[in-house]
Specification:
Elements (H helix, E strand, L loop, with lengths): L22 H5 L4 H10 L2 E4 L7 E4 L2 H8 L5 E2 L25 H9 L5 H20 L6 E3 H18 L7 H10 L11 H23 L7 H7 L10 H32 L1 H9 L4 H12 L4 E6 L3 E3 L2 E3 L4 E5 H4 L35 H18 E6 L4 E2 L8 E3 L1 E6 L2
Helix pairs in contact: 5-6, 5-14, 6-10, 7-8, 7-10, 8-9, 8-10, 10-12, 10-14, 12-14
């Protein structure tokens, strides 16, 4: 099966060549039946031949949780995505580390999303969301991704880094480049990707040096510059770059694609949109449901540190194990009617889009807060955000997102 094949997955032998890790499947939104089949017939499945080498697919909620919470058996060291890092351009980052180093570095930056700081950020997020929404025209087609999803999350990211606000779209670009390959349409070559990421490193190196002289601030760069385990990161520039990319992608791609995914989902489930119009208090429960339905990062990968058994399959030490969050969040045995958006679910946070265990997404409460505020401000202003064309999806097995969503806004009558 080649990367460009999009065929009925039930017509393909379920053998070592059955490969769900094809960016084209995700870009065409054609991956769902592939994962449905794996969940039913081979929840822990070995693909022996792919462009990423052999890998195990873990597709059901229970086994994903088992892998994610067993860092002593399944290691993050060396990378969190299915593609291996280039030996000549390796970017260590704390999410791709095991304890104790992971715990030490995560502890340095986690205060930025502590409850006290989130409370201080809420008014800023609300003012910016309101300002952006007030600028939107009624009755005209716009690209929701660019006008709201990207702009709002990029403004937030610039605030968290205390990055020059007028240059904030550079953060968007670096986020896109970091997860792109030559077939994505974002970069033309790996050399271009490296060059742009090294440019990112250069800009943030200067910011790091400046912040070393200014302790006491609560932005991410200042925290890194003064943290006991990170203050010498300039001596390890590729590790510094890796952590920057982690924080940029984690703070940008996930929230931005959930903002877009929510609009798309409510258009696909109009009865739920009616529920929301009738009761705005449902926003609090709707937000984690949108994140589950969208699952903005499709997978995380681990490597087995020892021979073990998972779902009745024997995993060998060194094997690559991929947790498909996008599949676990649609597991019929764990979540009722998982393919539907249900904005008043009783247990809406029962999803695995943020991961679990020591690597659970550090910014999960910030992401939820941004989405909650956006939808509170949307419902004050618009009766309907009408999707008027097909979304343009990203070419990636990792970032499950959008580059375009054409919409027309309708005001309250």
């Amino acid at each position: 099966m080649t990367e460009l094949d999009i065929v009925d997955p039930y017509s393909i032998p379920l053998d070592g060549k059955f490969n769900v890790a094809q960016p084209k499947l995700f870009q065409a939104d054609a991956h769902w039946p592939y994962f449905e089949r794996l969940r039913k017939e081979a929840p822990v499945h070995l693909c022996e031949e792919s462009e990423y080498g052999p890998y195990w697919s873990v597709t059901k909620y229970k086994e994903i949780m088992q892998v994610d919470t067993s860092h002593d058996i399944f290691s993050s060291e060396g990378g969190i995505v299915i593609a291996d890092q280039d030996d000549e351009f390796t970017m260590p980052m704390f999410i791709a580390m095991d304890p104790p180093k992971h715990d030490e570095q995560r502890k340095v930056v986690s205060p930025v999303v502590a409850p006290f700081n989130l409370q201080k950020l809420e008014n800023t997020i609300r003012e910016r969301a309101a300002g952006l929404l007030d600028e939107l025209p009624l009755g005209e087609e716009i690209n929701w991704v660019d006008r709201i999803s990207i702009e709002l999350t990029t403004q937030m990211l610039a605030t968290l880094f205390d990055f020059p606000f007028e240059e904030r779209r550079r953060l968007t670009r670096w986020s896109d480049v970091a997860t792109a390959n030559e077939d994505s349409g974002i970069i033309e070559s790996e050399d271009q990707r490296r060059g742009e990421l090294l440019e990112c490193l250069g800009v943030f190196t200067e910011l790091f040096k400046q912040r070393q002289q200014k302790p006491g601030k609560n932005d991410l760069i200042t925290m890194l510059a003064h943290g006991d385990s990170t203050k010498d990161l300039l001596d390890r520039p590729m590790e510094y770059l890796g952590n920057l990319i982690l924080l940029i992608v984690g703070g940008n791609d996930t929230t931005r694609n959930s903002i877009t995914g929510g609009v798309l989902a409510l258009n696909q489930f109009p009865d739920e949109y009616d529920k929301l119009r009738a009761d705005h208090s449902l926003i609090t429960r709707m937000v984690p449901e949108i994140i589950r339905w969208q699952t903005p990062l499709a997978h995380m990968r681990r490597r087995a540190l020892q021979d073990t058994e998972l779902g009745g399959q024997k995993i060998k030490a060194g094997d690559k194990v991929v947790m498909w969050y996008v599949s676990g969040n649609r597991d019929e045995e764990a979540i009722e009617l998982p393919n539907d958006l249900i904005i008043d679910r009783q247990r809406p946070r029962q999803h695995i889009a943020f991961g679990f265990g020591i690597h659970r997404c550090m910014g999960n409460r910030l992401a939820e807060m941004q989405l909650r505020i956006v939808w509170e401000e949307i419902m004050k202003r618009f009766d309907n955000i009408e999707v008027v064309g097909e979304p343009k999806r990203i070419y990636s097995t990792f970032v499950k997102g959008y580059s375009e969503l054409p919409v027309v806004l309708h005001g309250k009558t």
